[in-house]
Structure formats: structure tokens, C-alpha cells
Design goal:
Blueprint (H helix, E strand, L loop, with lengths): L2 H7 L12 H20 L2 H6 L3 H6 L5 H4 L7 H22 L1 H26 L9 H17 L1 H4 L4 H17 L5 H34 L1
Helix pairs in contact: 2-6, 6-7, 6-8, 7-8, 7-11, 8-10, 8-11
Length: 215
């Protein structure tokens, strides 16, 4: 079976749902609900799920690497991440399929949080980090891989222009206070690596399929 078809169909979803941004919309809804709960419970969920050296390593609560991805500081933080997720995420989910998109999102978020934690240990930073930014930057990494390694996307999105945009986003993280830039860089790197694996595997399968059809 063609690799692209497999990644889009796996999961047993009916054909009419394959192009719908089910994962992107679901993630945005979950993040919004969690934020609303945080408004009423105040610091409860932040204390339970925020990413910190003390919480993860000191208390051995490794689930914080995941739970912190669903927490946001304020409405502006939530809005900026969810807008990107709903627009860019929906487009990428349609192109890669639900399974691949979900894997890239969560692996990027976890990878970003791991690098953030390592950075906190090295710099003796005791602060707490929250947000889906690592996963969001992972989607940037996925798109970058698609632009660099797939001709059809390269013709749509100029690689140099997109790389400049990503570089500026990373730069903003260094000049704006209270930004966990390590999570951004980690998420971007993981998204790019996993996206590259997906695109290269898809390209190989497509070339193999074309050879078989010609034979």
C-alpha cells in the first residue's frame, strides 16, 4: 500500500472525514477547555502539570512533559497558539493524514519540553514552563521538511522566505521576556526530523509505485 495512503487511512476513519482537521480542532477544543478550568481552579492545574526541574526530576512526575502542553498562561498565549494550530495545523493535517500529524505534534511537544528541561538544569533555572509552543514549532519544522524535500510544496512555499520566517520566530523568543525558547528550538528540531522521515519515506514509496506501474 502506498505510504501516503496508509498514513491517511490508518485509524479506520470513514473516507468523508479524511480531509477534515479532526485532530487540530480537537486539540484546540481541549486546550481551550483546560484553560477555562484553570480560570476557576487558579493554580491547581499549573501546580500539577507545569514543567519544572523540581516537578519532573525532583518529584519524578514525568507526566508533566505531556500535561504542560495543555496549559497556557493567559488568553493571549492560548489564542496565538490555537490560531496557528487551527490554520496551519489544519492544512498540514490534510496533507499528512491524521496519524502522522498527531505523531509530529506530540513528539515535537515532548521533544521541546525535554530540551527545555535540560536547559533549566544547565542554567539552574527553577521557573515553571507551560504551553503548546514546542508542538506548534514542531509544525513549522514539519512544513520546513515538506518545503525542502517535496517539489510540490517547494513550488507553493518559497524555502528561503519560509526559513527566514522561522528564524525570526526563534529570534523573537530570545528578545521577548518569559519565553521558553529552548522548547521552541527543540520542538522545531523534532518536527523537522520526523517530518523529513515522513516525506522521504513517502517519496521512496511513490517512486517504487511508479516503477511497478511502468513494469
Amino acid at each position: 500500500m502506498n505510504f501516503l495512503i496508509f498514513t491517511k487511512k490508518v485509524g479506520g476513519l470513514p473516507a468523508r472525514y479524511k480531509d477534515m482537521p479532526i485532530v487540530s480542532v480537537s486539540l484546540a477544543i481541549i486546550n481551550t477547555i483546560v484553560f477555562i478550568v484553570c480560570i476557576f481552579t487558579r493554580d491547581l492545574l499549573y501546580d500539577m502539570g507545569g514543567l519544572s526541574v523540581q516537578g519532573v526530576l525532583g518529584q519524578q512526575e514525568y507526566g508533566r512533559l505531556l500535561w504542560s502542553m495543555f496549559l497556557h498562561v493567559d488568553t493571549e498565549h492560548l489564542f496565538s497558539n490555537m490560531i496557528f494550530l487551527l490554520f496551519m495545523g489544519a492544512m498540514l493535517e490534510k496533507e499528512t493524514g491524521h496519524l502522522c500529524f498527531t505523531l509530529v505534534y506530540f513528539l515535537s511537544g515532548l521533544g521541546g519540553n525535554v530540551l527545555s528541561l535540560v536547559n533549566k538544569v544547565i542554567t539552574l533555572n527553577s521557573s515553571m514552563s507551560v504551553g503548546a509552543s514546542g508542538a506548534i514549532f514542531g509544525l513549522d519544522g514539519l512544513l520546513l521538511a515538506m518545503v525542502l524535500f517535496s517539489r510540490e510544496y517547494r513550488n507553493t512555499v518559497p524555502p528561503v522566505r519560509f526559513m527566514i520566517m522561522v528564524a525570526l520566530s526563534i529570534y523573537d523568543g530570545y528578545v521577548i521576556e518569559n519565553i521558553d525558547n529552548a522548547a521552541h528550538v527543540g520542538g522545531l528540531a523534532v518536527g523537522f526530523v520526523t517530518g523529513s522521515i515522513y516525506i522521504l519515506a513517502r517519496n521512496l514509496c511513490q517512486r517504487k509505485y511508479k516503477r511497478e506501474v511502468q513494469i
